Predict the structure.
Amino acid sequence: MSAADKPDDERTELLEELNAKPYWTYDDIAVYWNMSPKSVRTYRFTRAGFLPDPDETINRAPVWKPDTIRDHPRPGTQQQELDAARAKQLEELNGKDVWTMQDVAVYWGISVESVRTYRMRPGVLPEATMRGRTPTWPAEVIRNHRRPGRGAGGGPKRKDGSQ
């Protein structure tokens, strides 16, 4: 039975025992991150950066200081946080009728600099309405506009006029 399958009170006891150890093994990290030891090993060997380098090697086994693991984010949580933040940003766009470059960037999942570049290329973005010095678009126009892909609008035109 892995740490993820154990009841909360038993897991709490395991975590208290971990705090007394000077080094953690794969099994200890699995208890701390609430996953299987096999997953922790996979993060070490197949997913660069998901598990920090070991602090020591004891009897050919890698071990980590508890603070090294505590300071390292649990794999999977960063992407979940980014997805949740983007979902919140997209939800906030629903109430807006007019979008700025920042709003377009959030909607398309790209940087503001990319939107600025698209805006400078003729025919890539619809014409913007200026509010002071800020370019804006009606939200429906951007929702119905196909986002330019990699290489869209760039390069020389073909001599035969075909696309």
Q: What stands out?
A: Strands lie at 56-58, 61-63, 98-99, 129-131, 134-138. The two ends are 60 Å apart (CA to CA). The chain has two domains: 3-73, 78-144. DSSP finds eight helices and five strands in the chain.
